[in-house]
Amino acid sequence: MGRVTRPPVYEFFSFLNRKCHSLGLVSNRPFAAAGRSVPLLRAGLIAGIVVTAALYPLAALTGLGAKATAHAVEQKTDILRTALPAETSYLYAPDGKTVLTMFYEEYRQYTKLSDMSPNIQQAIVAAEDNRFYQHHGVDPKGVARAFVANARSSGVSQGASTLTMQYVRMALRDSAKTPKEVQEATQQTSLRKVKEMRMALDIEKELTKEQILERYLNSAYFGHRAYGIYAASQIFFSKTPATLTPVEAATLAGLVKSPSEYDPITSDQKDATGRRNYVLDNMTRLGFMSPDVAAAYKSEPIQLKLTDPPNDCASIPKKYNSWGFACDYVKNWWSAQPAFGENRLERMDKLRRGGYRIVLSIDPKIQAAAEQNVGAQDNTGSPFANGIVVSEPGTGRVKAMAVNRTYSLDLSQNGPTSNPEADPNVKANYPNTVAPLLGGGTLPGYQAGSTFKMFPMLAALDSGMKLSTSFNAPYTYKSSVYDGWAPSNASGAMTGNQTMWSGFGKSVNTYFVWLEEQVGADRAVRMAEQLGLRWRTDVDKEQASPAKAKKWGSFTLGVSDATPLEMANAYAAVAADGRYCEAIPVLSISNRDGTPATYTTPGGVQREIAKPRCRQVVSADAARAATDAARCPTGDTPAKGSCGGWSTADSVRGTVGRPVAGKTGTTDSTRSAWFAGFTPELAAASFIADPDNPFNAVGDGQSQIPVNAVARTLRDALKGQPVRQFTPPSDEIVG
């Protein structure tokens, strides 16, 4: 007669019987389990809940409850095979090496097992699962030990989870998409334990021990926001996992069981030292080190070298403080990218959990020039914000974002707001702020004045009108198109026959209201939209609507709000021969595996997210014609026409020292002042206004500040570079 093969669960109960019998914890009453008769634990010795927790899961593995859990296990196993824990995203300076800050909910950087010291691999096995290399995901002997220990203590003094089972729990938690799934992954129930064991057995068939150990060490929580062994090594010892010593590894491994109880930072280290020594003793029993070596390590005090990892834009180093505004724009830009999720919440979750490597587009030389030239105009003790944004024509990449403010969440030293209608307890935006004063957020911006004259001029040129189009502009012009609206010029010296060159150079309101009538205000509005402007106030949205746009005559005078980011990018399109590129604050974005982050276009084409996204908005000849006219305000000489003898910012050409175009802009009572300018290489827009109170006029005396900020920044940014010329417009469009 052949040998009878006993099921594993019978072997477990036989082992359990022997253990319990040796401790005097059994009676002779039988208990049927898995078709066999085994002694029953003495009645009343162990609470029923302990029996359930210890016996039911093992029985379930052989069939009991299998139908109830099979479907869930099948669903989750595929997730566990590929599940990656949340990982920190890094923001780098343009050199791709200097870390500016990180974004995370769980500070973690995935590390390969080959990049971890053998010490931490041995220590975690010694701390959490001595039989890790012997079992197949579930350890019957471990369950038995826990059962007996819990029985003797009349409570729960030991657990029975293997490293594999713990990894299953962490992977389910990390892959959960809803709070309910998180709860199901971590709740203390027998059903959850059954699923966990079933999946652990399945996972051990799919992954090697080394793969499981690698995933475990990258998922475990060590306390103090340290998720995974890389973060723990950094936070507690300021080193990489590859260089952990045995005593450091034992300290970290000891934390996993209870990060708060064994915390060596906030406690007196007594409990942490005891737990570390327990791990060292286990490492000795497992043959990882000799007793003498372990004894020497146990005599050492825990010596920490703490690191506080930065998180989010407010943590950017002081040296790069002004880069915080660009960092903030990265977040706002990211939250608007469909490639990262269906809504803002999903996209920001990707940023904080996706392990991306993001390289900022800010150019250090240009940023330094921008910082110096806004800082030189005004101190942060003023309610008036002077800011500048520099964009790269042909790519849309943001090269500088600077404002005369300190990027900080600490508003304690800020004075009261200048807005008389606000609560007196409301703080002003200076000297500290994190408000997106330069654009890219939800703030509407500032009225941009005559910088908007670029849009009707581009619309007119693109529709076939000539640069030489002339009109005898009166001091006051009563419009029959705009229901009798009668705007005036800023000066009587602007009266007379004007062309696009002289009208733009002198900023003749009545010429441009007439020009806008010829081309249609709605076409000017649509041109601005094609060049990236967005309407954020209710008034602007209503006026820009199809029903109202044709009558929006004051649009050409810049009554709408805009941000310097938008204006720099719009003028960059003119410099790029009419090719508009979306503003983009990054040079590259890499996935956690090092591959470029991509998205799929509506046409099914896969593209890198960080690549420029450009389109031709106006013809190259129209853009070149607009550039030629825009040389007049700066004191430069156009290639084809006459500026009419004077201009509104004639110092710019001398300051920049090379061909330059641009436009000034002021609003009623000079509540804000602007200048947008460009060379073939760079475009910049600067403003000065009170972000807290738009009715707090900056005054004519400060209207030159944005002009100087742009001119000096372009000068300093391009110093040492070859001088490039603008391409002249064709004779046909000149007229």
Automatic annotation (TrEMBL):
Domain Penicillin-binding protein transpeptidase: 388-691
GO molecular function terms listed in the Swiss-Prot or TrEMBL record: penicillin binding; peptidoglycan glycosyltransferase activity; serine-type D-Ala-D-Ala carboxypeptidase activity
Stretch forming the signal peptide: none
Catalytic activity reported: [GlcNAc-(1->4)-Mur2Ac(oyl-L-Ala-gamma-D-Glu-L-Lys-D-Ala-D-Ala)](n)-di-trans,octa-cis-undecaprenyl diphosphate + beta-D-GlcNAc-(1->4)-Mur2Ac(oyl-L-Ala-gamma-D-Glu-L-Lys-D-Ala-D-Ala)-di-trans,octa-cis-undecaprenyl diphosphate = [GlcNAc-(1->4)-Mur2Ac(oyl-L-Ala-gamma-D-Glu-L-Lys-D-Ala-D-Ala)](n+1)-di-trans,octa-cis-undecaprenyl diphosphate + di-trans,octa-cis-undecaprenyl diphosphate + H(+); Preferential cleavage: (Ac)2-L-Lys-D-Ala-|-D-Ala. Also transpeptidation of peptidyl-alanyl moieties that are N-acyl substituents of D-alanine
InterPro entries found in the cross-reference section: Beta-lactam/transpept-like, Glyco_trans_51, Glycosyltr_51/Transpeptidase, Lysozyme-like_dom_sf, PBP_transglycosylase, PCN-bd_Tpept
Keyword entries, A-Z: Carboxypeptidase, Cell shape, Cell wall biogenesis/degradation, Glycosyltransferase, Hydrolase, Multifunctional enzyme, Peptidoglycan synthesis, Protease, Transferase
Protein's organism: Micromonospora siamensis
Domain Glycosyl transferase family stretches: 99-283
Family: In the C-terminal section; belongs to the transpeptidase family.
Protein name listed in UniProt: Membrane carboxypeptidase (Penicillin-binding protein)
GO cellular component labels: outer membrane-bounded periplasmic space
PANTHER family assigned: BINDING PROTEIN TRANSPEPTIDASE, PUTATIVE-RELATED, PEPTIDOGLYCAN GLYCOSYLTRANSFERASE
Keyword Hydrolase: yes
A biological-process GO annotation: peptidoglycan biosynthetic process
